[in-house]
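Entry 14. Ran structure prediction on the chain below.
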Amino acid sequence: MGVSLVSGNSPFNRSFGAPMRILLRLIFIVLVVVGACVLLTLNLRAKLDYEKTRAELNAHAYTAVQIDADDDALLARIRADWQSSNIIRGFSSDALEALEKHPSVSNLVDVVTYRLPEYAFVSPSRNTEPLVMATILPVIRLKSIDQLIYVSDDRHPAFIRCLPTAVMVYTDEEAGLRETLYYLARISQMIPQL
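Output, C-alpha cells:
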C-alpha cells in the first residue's frame, strides 16, 4: 500500500483541496468550451466554402433530356454534314475513372447532371464524395449553350450542344467511351441557302 504525502486531514488538503478542485473543473470546462468553439468555427468556415462551391456548380449543372425526333434529325444532319474529331477514352473517360466510375455514356450523364447535396454539418466525412465531385465537375462539364445533355432512351448515345457550330457526341464502344466533336468548318455552312 502506498504512502500518501498529503493525508486526507492535512492542512494542505483542507485549505487548498476544495478551491483547487473547483479551479481544475473550471479549467476543464473552459478548455472543452474553447475546443468546441474552435471546432465549430472551423466547421462553419468549411460549410461556407462548401456552400459557395455548391451554389456555383449547381448553377451550371446540366439537365438530362430525352432525344426526340427533331434531335434525331439534327444529329443525323450533323453527322452527315459537319466535320468531326474522334477521341476514344478522352478527357471525359479520364475524369470518370478519377471518380472510380466506368467510362460510359450512362455514367457521364449521371456525373454532368450531378448536383452537390447540402453540407453534412453533423457528419463532415459525408462531404468527401461531393468534394471530390466538385473538383472533377468543372473539367467534365463542357460549355453548353443550353445546359442540357440530350440522351437516348437506352442511355447510350448522348450529345451536348457546345456552340451553335459545335456539338459533342458521346457513344459507348467496346474500346471505351467515344467522344466525337462535330463542328462546322466554315461559317457559310451556317447560313441557309436562299
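The helical segments are 11-59, 69-81, 91-98, 105-112, 128-140. Will compare against last week's run tomorrow.
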